[in-house]
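Q: Can I see a sequence and its folded structure?
A: Here is a first one.
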Amino acid sequence: MSGRPFVLHEYVRWGDVDPAGIIRWDAYTRFYELGESELFRAVGLPYRSIFRRFGIGLPRRVLHMDFVTPPVLDERLEVRVYVSAVGTTSLTMNFDVYGDGGALRSAGYIVLVCVPAGTEALRKLPWPPEFLALLEPYRVSVEAARAS
């Protein structure tokens, strides 16, 4: 793996915080979802095209979040998104969220599973090679991503 993280910026908004102005734990899912969808869009795969072009769905099997330090209202966050592991039927997408001064705010990951699109009976499929090839620029180990 010699890729790099995909980077986007987003602010902590009013709907993300509690009455003390500190981010709520569940608000991180918005940053993770935004990072995931924008990474896919950056490689030419908005969600609709994933379903249509490859005939696959991407259910989540795991969501893991570590809360390191709390960002506050109106803080500009840098979300770094990258693929750290690829298996035959699943992949791990990481999200490192940095705040003011480069402070790590959250580190998390999701595990996506490749399944046929639009089916009720979910069964695992191998990843389409072309799909994985498009993600290759953003494949990087956790250690290398955090060192950059």
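Q: Show me another, different protein.
A: A second, unrelated one:
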Amino acid sequence: MKWLNLAGLAVLGVCTVSIPLTAAIVLSTTGASDILSIGGMTPEHHHETPANAVSDIRCVAGRGYYALTFDGGPLPANTRQLVGALAKARAVATFFDPGERAAARQDLVELQRSVGQVANEGYTVGNMARVSQARRYQELQGGAKVLDYPNVFFRPSLGDTSSAVEADA
């Protein structure tokens, strides 16, 4: 009887470990997984609210209002030049950065902050309207964590949105 109980527990243990592990491996190799793996994302800096951060570097529009926004950065090929041009013009911009790119180039994110605010474009560059709600939450939270809270604005990559994306954001 004792051996039967031990054998049953052993089978149960193997099933609870190997089946989910096998499913995860199969999903990751087929690309069918809807789970975003972000890793450790503890913000290194805490930034003041974007409105306060840019309040002393605003330019004054002669007529009407305008907003300069840039998506998909920071990119080593053009971020420094873009920030330099904005600084020379005393212009303020909002940079919508994917968290994945921002995590890889925190130096460029800090440079962007010198002429404006950095906002959330999700964690990866993907279509937010085509993923599950759980994945959208992971994307939004992942991007926000990498960029440090608070993030006032969100813009989905490539403008791919839906009523569900807007509600979740």
